[in-house]
Amino acid sequence: MENIEVGEVFTIIDENNEEHEVEVLASINMEGTVYVAVGFVEDIQAETEEDIDIFFLKVDQDGDFSPIESDEEFEKVSSAFDEILNDE
Predict the structure, then answer these.
(1) Which of 20, 29, 50, 60 would suit a FRET pair with 66, their CA atoms being 20 to 30 Å apart?
(2) CA-based nearest residue to 22, from 12, 14, 30
């Protein structure tokens, strides 16, 4: 699997088959699994004081993104990213 770099832009398809460009804001490796924090490119580029929505995705062995499926896993990942993003 190739490394995913902060700042990379990817297109993801949502449950309604709509495409969205997302930018990687941070990545973390927890227990051998890579997770990324992403935001919509249009939200990141908008010059606004409002908070942007950040989503956490799991990166599988093929480099594809998949949703985090359990609340427990989401809480662990969310806490880890909170520490990283609040330190910047």
Answers:
(1) 50
(2) 12
